[in-house]
Design brief:
Oligomer: single chain
Strand order of the largest sheet: 1-2-6-3-5-4
CATH superfamily of the largest domain: Metalloenzyme, LuxS/M16 peptidase-like
Strand content: 15-25%
Shape: globular
CATH topology of the largest domain: Cytochrome Bc1 Complex, Chain A, domain 1
Helix content: 40-55%
CATH class of the largest domain: Alpha Beta
Number of domains: 2
CATH architecture of the largest domain: 2-Layer Sandwich
Length: 494
């Protein structure tokens, strides 16, 4: 009997193991088709309240009391586009230096005092604005705002901090200029915007950074860091009344200069067949090739904005067309995607991938082909629904934190867009139809006027690329000059 019981147990264990294995196998098998996205849900955010102080500072407060946290962000309506031609990077460096010492606090003291409050402070510049932000518990917002205002209004710009930061920028740039993808992105600015202010790298070039002196930084701060060129956004556990009181206390006596803001001549280049460039940057020691299709695009205030971002969503993301064709179907890249960068004056569109050098020409053709299909092919409702869901989900995740909400409000304020857009975002995305995608692509993404940049070991892809394009510029990486629209270093006549 005991022997029989043992045999039964053994058989039971085997059957259990087989059943468990079968369940495990079924669990590992990927679903043939992903589940369809659920219907989008709208969330109503409280309407921001705003007022303008006597000195011209625009103050925006949005109350969100789920957590005892506050984010304050001051935006200066000027960023990298105000850099003088020979001083590329000066606006970015000026912004980064704000938290590195004031006339009464050293960089170490700022960091220690903010940390003691359980907060975080940061400053940086973009193309159309510079910003300083602080995150802190609402119970400690007063002392944090005191430091915050000091950083904005009284930066010391000490020579040793400038030297240290310049060295960091140059080191970072040196690393970037050893990577095909970074080189392609830097070159893209010049290809799209040429010698207009958006053309140079935001963080400067190896030639421009050493030219930036303290007087240049002080001049940028004096010209653009002024209350009538600034927006203060406060979000979180803070009533509008208390937010306005804080703004008045720490920024109300910030003096508005008597002189007018400088008028910046901003060019708005247009991508057309005449200005199209097929550019190869030869980097013989590159392990991979970077492929980048680029062109001008709509600005942020365009009525086509939502049609534009939905069109871009068709191409980008893991299940977007570019990644699907280049990575999933052919295994030619770890990832491919696109970006629609809408700015104040003229935006840009780019589609990119990295691949082995030998497949550089093939990936270039695939990239342009997928962009072209948007204007000539059809977009199925099922595909559009999925890509809209991805776009809406990304937008929603960006608003989960105070910092994300304040950042979105700040962006709308900088570009003069109504705050109502936050609550209308889902509806505006859902309103885009397949026909809208086709019309937008035909009007704004023609590949006949889209430039192409390929950076890598040219001998491995140039012959194949020459079969696709009759006129190709080849610039050896040693001759690359990011300071001019030609991108080619001038040959010395000596």
């Amino acid at each position: 009997m005991k022997s029989l019981i043992n045999k039964i147990r053994a058989v039971s264990l085997v059957l259990l193991a087989l059943l468990s294995f079968g369940v495990w196998v079924l669990a590992q098998e990927p679903q043939a088709t992903p589940p369809p996205p659920s219907a989008p849900r709208t969330v109503q955010f409280p309407r921001p309240v705003e007022k303008t102080l006597a000195n011209g500072l625009r103050v925006v407060v949005i109350q969100r009391s789920e957590m005892p946290l506050v984010t304050a962000r001051l935006l200066i309506r000027s960023g990298g586009e105000v850099d003088p031609n020979e001083l590329a990077g000066v606006a970015d460096i000026s912004a980064a230096l704000l938290t590195r010492g004031t006339t009464t606090r050293s960089a170490t003291q700022i960091a220690e005092q903010i940390e003691a409050l359980g907060g975080f402070i940061n400053s940086s510049a973009g193309w159309d604005s510079s910003n300083i932000s602080v995150d802190v518990l609402s119970a400690r917002v007063g002392p944090a705002m005191e430091i915050f205002a000091d950083v904005v209004r009284n930066p010391a710009f000490k020579d040793e901090e400038i030297t240290r930061l310049r060295s960091q920028y140059l080191n970072n740039l040196k690393v970037s200029l050893g990577q095909p993808g970074s080189i392609a992105r830097f070159a893209a600015g010049r290809v799209i915007y040429r010698d207009a202010p958006y053309g140079h790298p935001l963080s400067g070039t190896p030639e421009s950074l050493p030219r930036i002196k303290r007087d240049d930084i002080v001049r940028i701060h004096g010209m653009f860091y002024r209350p009538d060129n600034a927006i203060l956004v406060i979000g979180g556990d803070m009533t509008p009344e208390n937010g306005f009181a804080l703004a008045q206390k720490y920024f109300g006596d910030w003096q508005k200069p008597a002189n007018e803001l400088p008028k910046m001549p901003i060019g708005t280049p247009v991508s057309d067949t005449k200005n199209r460039r097929i550019l190869v940057i030869d980097m013989p020691d590159a392990g991979q090739a970077a492929v980048l299709a680029v062109r001008t695009a709509i600005n942020r205030s365009s009525p086509d904005y939502f049609r534009g971002i939905v069109t871009n969503a068709i191409l980008s993301g893991y299940s977007g067309r570019l990644n699907w064709e280049i990575r999933v179907k052919r295994g030619l890249s770890y990832g491919a995607g696109s970006s629609l960068d809408t700015r104040r004056w003229a935006g840009s569109f780019s589609a990119s991938a990295q691949t082995k050098n030998e497949s550089g020409a093939e990936v270039a053709a695939l990239t342009l082909d997928e962009v072209s299909k948007l204007a000539t092919g059809e977009v199925a409702e099922t595909e559009l629904k999925t890509r809209k869901a991805s776009l809406i989900g990304g937008f929603a995740r960006g608003l989960e934190t105070n910092g994300g909400l304040v950042g979105q409000l700040g962006s709308l304020a900088i570009y003069g867009v109504s705050f109502d857009e936050i609550n209308k975002f889902v509806g505006n995305v859902e309103a885009v139809k397949p026909a809208d995608i086709k019309r937008f692509a035909a009007a704004n993404l023609s590949t006949d006027s889209t430039s192409l940049i390929v950076v890598g070991d040219a001998k491995k892809f140039l012959p194949a690329l020459q079969k696709q394009f009759s006129q190709i510029e080849v610039i050896p990486v040693a001759e690359l000059d990011l300071n001019s629209a030609s991108l080619r270093r001038a040959v010395s006549k000596n």
